[in-house]
Target: YicC family protein
Amino acid sequence: MLMSMTGFGRGESSDKIHNFNVEIKSLNHRYNDIIIKMPKHINYMEENIKRLIKKNIKRGRIEVYIDLEYVDDNNIDVKVDIPLALAYKEALERMANTLNINEKITINHIVRMPEIVKTERKKDDENEIWLCLKEALEEALDNLIDMRSKEGNQLAYDIKEKALNIKNMVREIEERAPLVVVEYKEKLEDRVEELLNNEYELDESRLANEVVFFADKSSVDEEIVRLYSHIDQLTECLNSNESVGRKLDFLVQEMNREINTIGSKSSDIAISRLVVEVKSEIEKIREQIQNVE
Model:
């Protein structure tokens, strides 16, 4: 099944302490590039997250947004730096005496000072928080993969249609190619007879050699065989369950190379027109596979 590289998925999970909301967005990219944005105090989960994503997604830029809320405030520790508070109190009293200010130093003055009161999260149970996060992450991945799969099916259908069009046009080139040699021979005979004006006998052997040389020079049999092979391989890739984006890209490059060779070898107008149409279809496929995993 062909997979697109673009998609979006959302997941949510909760336990007695944690409430996770996860959003995953995937975009086109040559490699598997994962960007994670989450609360700093759970950064140690990054490798677990990447490992799970890479298991399911082989290619694309993956942006992960993780939001964590705590269900209640029992997980918060409040710490007061008493030595620092005493130092602030003494400093404020010295300043008041020096400036002849008769205002009494109160708790309100001290708690406003930096670093006096700190709130910290109690240490999370790493296994517990991972199990909760994993549930939300897997739900988001399932939704993302479902969207990528649906878009992939549409891409596969479109590419197959274009590949069939190319195959039909290559078949027309294959049928037309032998006729080009016959027409060349007839034109050559007519031209030679016109120039000789029936005063000299036509040298059939030299004429045959010229036709053979032209036929060999303009032969596109090998290119056509390889084109058929590339088209068949491309179609097989579209039905694969593996990540085939890079292979498709290579096949399209090879198809383009073969049709360019055919175009350079042929001086026939009909074949030249078909070459242009084939190149146009190949370019459309190339644009489509930029979005394939």
In short: The mean pLDDT is 84. Residues 262 and 277 are 13 Å apart (CA to CA). Residues 76-121 form one domain. The chain has three domains: 7-73+123-148, 76-121, 152-289.
